[in-house]
Amino acid sequence: MKKYKNKINRIRSFALSLIFIGFVIMYGAIFFRENQILVILFMSLGLICIIGSTAVYGWIGLLSTRAVQVVCPNCQRHTKVLGRVDMCMYCNEPLTLDPALEGKEFSESYNSKRN
Ligand SMILES: [Zn+2]
């Protein structure tokens, strides 16, 4: 079975990994310090990753304001639901905003417009 995670959490971990990738690429520039062009190339690539990550973080902030805050029935904590179906941020309980989908097996395909 495929593992689902809360969308906001997923984007957040993506942004975090982008920062790490950016730093690793910048660190890689050390190995090419004899070649100035490569150093500049690696440095700017790393910088682009970090700038991209900042942009993703800004995007999360924007999404968070549009997400619906609900109380998870499983762990009683406040979590944010993005789209028609999403998982709880803390216990991965599947949550839905659509009463028609209640009780059905969780599928991310419910979020696509065709369904
Ligand atoms: Zn929960």
Automatic annotation (TrEMBL):
Pfam families assigned: DUF2614
Keywords of this entry: Cell membrane, Membrane, Transmembrane, Transmembrane helix
Sequence intervals crossing the membrane: 12-32, 38-60
NCBIfam families: PRK02935.1
Protein known as: Uncharacterized protein
Organism: Lysinibacillus composti
Lineage: Bacteria, Bacillati, Bacillota, Bacilli, Bacillales
